[in-house]
Amino acid sequence: MAPRTRLSIAKSDIIAAIEAESLKIWTAEQLNQLMRENAQFWRLAKNQSLIGFIEFLLRDTKLEQATLTFPQKKITRYLWGEASIFELSLSLYPNVYLSHYSAVYLHGLTEQIPKTVYVNKEQPYQSQGTELQQERIDFAFSRNVRVSHEIAEHRGYRICMLHGAKTDNLGVVEMPGPEGEMLNVTDIERTLIDITVRPVYSGGVFEVLKAYRMAAERVSINRLIAYLKRIGHAYPFHQAIGFYLEKAGVYSESQIELVRSLPINFDFYLEHGIKDAEYSKGWRLYFPKGM
To answer: For residues 25 and 88, is the Cβ–Cβ distance under 8 A?
Structure first.
């Protein structure tokens, strides 16, 4: 019989220390700090390595390793018990939040169960650049939209990292997820803005329209417009928002007029790369034929 190691002798105390922290998801740095803070109490060898400590936990306790392989880097997390895909996604970086189709799902604005989780990591502030011109709008929206390829897979899900403009987490709230876990996610108003701006991350324009329809009883159009002004998009996305509100058929004229009161100075597009378009004169907006 092999002699017991100092780690195995301290196993019950190590487990108790981990569970006392009430963390489902650990980083290597957090495990290292836990080991260093308790090394004397656990009577660990002075040369005890973090790698050896983690290997012991993976082998002799319920700790599991989750390695997410993105195109440019790997991110490893350690799971103590069951953690949802949303919790795992939010653990990847500080101050990130769930957005787009993930937020649509969490707010109950779709019957679909998306298999891609969208996590927004805001970029530093960037200037909006030159003055808006019709020719530039036409050129930009004639091409297919650029999409994030920062994607990793985990247990049948895809985690997609987005790098949105800096908003200081405007409209981000904490709410319970499907398993009662607390999640940082955009509220309904911010979600409707985001999916209007990037329908490609939201199931497409028909799913966006459905989300607007399902949000009617809970959304504040005044708050939505206030968010829109604070974000300060270069393009006139309020025209697309007004179109969705009108097309949904469940909003009052007074609600729609709140958006219509904003200036409409350009022709705009509901999405990038529309092949067969119709035109809304009221909103000066091109949209896919059939909507």
So the answer is: yes
pLDDT tens for 79-94 read 999 999 999 999 999 9
Contact 161, 148 (CB under 8 A): yes
Taking the whole predicted model, whether its pTM rises above 0.90 is answered as yes
Q: Which domain holds residue 216?
A: 85-288
Residues 144, 278, single domain; the answer is: yes
The amino acid that residue 238 corresponds to is H
Classify burial at 109, counting beta carbons within 10 Å of its beta carbon; exposed 0-12, middle 13-18, buried 19 or more: buried
pLDDT tens, 144-170? Answer: 999 999 999 999 999 999 999 999 999
CA 224 vs CA 137, 170, 247: distances in Å? 23, 11, 17
* Number of folded domains that form the chain: 2
Residues 108 and 24 in one domain: no
Locus of tokens 């390695």? 67
Helix (H, G, I), strand (E, B) or coil at 182: strand
